[in-house]
């Protein structure tokens, strides 16, 4: 059980400041609806229906980037998901925000402006320092409780995430609660049968960190993606080199070569590598080639092949638990989704405990018509999911736990 308090512990008729993670793709200046709005709507709806006055904090992008924008559009999407009006004010802790907060009635919801538009928000600093910022000191006195529902940002030491729990009674929202329990299950739960991890994506460092940290918890790793190619290269196959303008392999290979080779040497019996790879053929269609037939690196590979998926499926079907970190190919392109979707299909059809995470990977479920109900948990977290798997601390979770401990004392 988590060591933090949840909404079940929240006193009735409270003024609640809740932190969400609504960070979304921006197209033509407009935020795109996604799984995060749907998930956070559960927490927001529960708070509003219980009669609390609900004020929301969230971020979008970073200063200087194209996706750094106001949250006005986010309020509209969230309102549709919650089924209630969500007010918005283009201010975070100035007079306009304070007046709007003061005017709230029971059951009403207000979203404040992008927290990253505040100078106090972004620099990483200790919770104690963040609690002393003008941002926290101005808003905190207006509220009875703070709710953190932003598990996917829990690895950050930003003011809205770690400052408020030091000065207000603090609780975990439903997203924070369910993400924490599912993503720590690999370290905290005992499974009767084999535990399998499907590992892909583009960041070899993440993959190596996960494999190293879970050495004694995972029976086998099924590899794909860029990371899988780098392991194939370490095994002596001429793959995993950049072709043309691609810049995915060579730099990571130079930084991680010795570690990849040592992991492969020490844990080779637990590591399954792709036996074939897919690429774009001369006619633009998907083509596949056995790894053993690749004589030199002449093209970029974009997915694992059909034989690899067939090789991986039995390992998945006989597992008691399967965790997914990263995609096995460029699934956004339908031609190269077979590996990722094939493995997800096998997991969905297997009666096992399953967690799909790694940020973008979970999007494949929606894109290709799979049902979330067929998985134990589909995570909306990226960096926080990796940290949970590798056992690294999550500052926002730690501050919630510390707040609960103070209340018990």
From TrEMBL:
GO biological process, one term: gluconeogenesis
Higher taxonomy: Archaea, Methanobacteriati, Methanobacteriota, Stenosarchaea group, Halobacteria
Family to which this protein belongs: Belongs to the phosphoglycerate kinase family.
Pathway: Carbohydrate degradation; glycolysis; pyruvate from D-glyceraldehyde 3-phosphate: step 2/5
Keywords annotated in UniProt: ATP-binding, Cytoplasm, Glycolysis, Kinase, Nucleotide-binding, Transferase
Cell compartment(s), UniProt: Cytoplasm
Any one annotated GO CC term: cytosol
Positions with a binding annotation for (2R)-3-phosphoglycerate: 36, 116, 156
The name this protein goes by in its record: Phosphoglycerate kinase
Bilayer-crossing regions: none
Keyword Kinase applies: yes
Claim: S-adenosyl-L-methionine is one of the keywords in the record: no
Annotated GO MF terms: ADP binding; ATP binding; phosphoglycerate kinase activity
Superkingdom field: Archaea
